[in-house]
From TrEMBL:
<dbReference type="GO" id="GO:0003924">
    <property type="term" value="F:GTPase activity"/>
</dbReference>
<dbReference type="GO" id="GO:0008312">
    <property type="term" value="F:7S RNA binding"/>
</dbReference>
<keyword id="KW-0547">Nucleotide-binding</keyword>
<comment type="subunit">
    <text>Part of the signal recognition particle protein translocation system, which is composed of SRP and FtsY.</text>
</comment>
<keyword id="KW-0687">Ribonucleoprotein</keyword>
<dbReference type="GO" id="GO:0005525">
    <property type="term" value="F:GTP binding"/>
</dbReference>
<keyword id="KW-0733">Signal recognition particle</keyword>
<keyword id="KW-0378">Hydrolase</keyword>
<dbReference type="GO" id="GO:0006614">
    <property type="term" value="P:SRP-dependent cotranslational protein targeting to membrane"/>
</dbReference>
<feature type="binding site">
    <location>
        <begin position="247"/>
        <end position="250"/>
    </location>
    <ligand>
        <name>GTP</name>
    </ligand>
</feature>
<keyword id="KW-0694">RNA-binding</keyword>
<feature type="domain" description="SRP54-type proteins GTP-binding">
    <location>
        <begin position="268"/>
        <end position="281"/>
    </location>
</feature>
<comment type="function">
    <text>Involved in targeting and insertion of nascent membrane proteins into the cytoplasmic membrane. Binds to the hydrophobic signal sequence of the ribosome-nascent chain (RNC) as it emerges from the ribosomes. The SRP-RNC complex is then targeted to the cytoplasmic membrane where it interacts with the SRP receptor FtsY.</text>
</comment>
<keyword id="KW-0342">GTP-binding</keyword>
<keyword id="KW-0963">Cytoplasm</keyword>
<comment type="similarity">
    <text>Belongs to the GTP-binding SRP family. SRP54 subfamily.</text>
</comment>
<protein>
    <recommendedName>
        <fullName>Signal recognition particle protein</fullName>
        <ecNumber>3.6.5.4</ecNumber>
    </recommendedName>
</protein>
Amino acid sequence: NLSARLTETFKNLRSKGKLSAADVDGTVREIRRALLEADVSLDVVKDFTGRVRERALGDEVNRALNPAQQVVQIVNEELVGILGGEQRRLQFAKNPPTVIMLAGLQGAGKTTLAGKLAKWLKGQGHTPLLVASDLQRPNAVTQLGVVAEQAGVAIFAPEPGNGVGDPVKVARDGVREAEAKHYDFVIVDTAGRLGVDAELMRQAADIRKAVNPDEVLFVIDAMIGQDAVATAKAFQEGVDFTGVVLTKLDGDARGGAALSIRSLTGRPILFASTGEGLDDFEPFHPDRMASRILDLGDVLSLIEQAQQAFDEEEARKVAEKIASDSFTLDDFLKQMQQLRGAGSLKKMMGMLPGMGKMQEQLDNFDEREILHTEAIIQSMTKAERANPKILNGSRRLRIAKGSGMTVTDVNQLIVRFEQAAKMMKTVAKGGVPQIPGMGAM
Ligand code: GDP
Ligand code: MG
């Protein structure tokens, strides 16, 4: 999937100090493939990768301390941009009621959304009225009634047994009812078809004309993939809409549809629906969607914090040493000392994806351990620190005596050092970043 591919791509980048044009091109190619596989439309992909490539080869990356990180940031920024930048709020009518019309294919989640919106608005002190203009399916009105009851809001529906109702008339009467009874929001639920069809479009367009809504929300199932674009375009031509609601984001869909719809229709995504329950609903945040698509946890902010705690040059030197297999006990000690200065270590760990186990180890982390480690390493000769392999039994005994620790302590420290060195190598190869020296505690 999209997220896994991008993560893989960034892992490969992460191990590089400086990026070449070939690196950038390779990465951009991977991003392109990942987006296409996630059903983002070709035009959007081209546009997107073009911008990322241009920026990635530019000065901001050249000057960056960590070029790969900078590329991740660029991709993130461009994703947020493509998703609409800032969050757009619901437009309220100058004179209530604010009329919101829902449109979309059958099964997209319109009726459910009507309930979610109503409940959400009610929670903010509004008085929404649901209007049942889906008279296509026999139980559509009943379904809206159930939803209204769950949300604790009023519903306007045609009298049962009044023959086949006219959805346009119901919509118009519903708005009048709201005006008369001073409801400040009207949510008009409409019929959908399994596929786009002319009659459905005409009916929706007629309802729109009749009630002149402040918002027409196009509701679309995020799982429908490439079809999302064609459907969205058909609705834009047939009814036009002022905003988009993405539903079923609780499924596997990573949001490729979101990327396409926003940029191809120019209409903002206003809400995200994430389940069948009425509370599974939230205003759409482009930045959150971008991190969902990238799936990098809060890696960006983690790196920012880590950069403050570690001396950049030092970190780079260590990385070089690991790469050349010469990570020494001196480096190990230096890192532990820097970590102690980092302070917010635990907070940092919490922000890494999949770090639950490390958290546990941190809870057992003892400040005195660092002092003992310092004592032991400082009792070693220069040669021993640079090349721990020469630490035989008699040397270990001497070190233990010199530092006031036991031989077991010395042995344990060396085991920890070896584990840290191994972990650091994993990091250098692009694995999950781990804090050196924490491994065996
Ligand atoms: P409509 O035909 O557009 O009115 O769609 P409905 O509101 O009747 O929803 C169709 C089905 O999708 C129902 O079973 C809903 O419970 C379900 N549904 C709606 N929104 C979501 C969502 O965000 N996540 C999930 N998992 N199911 C949803
Ligand atoms: Mg419905």
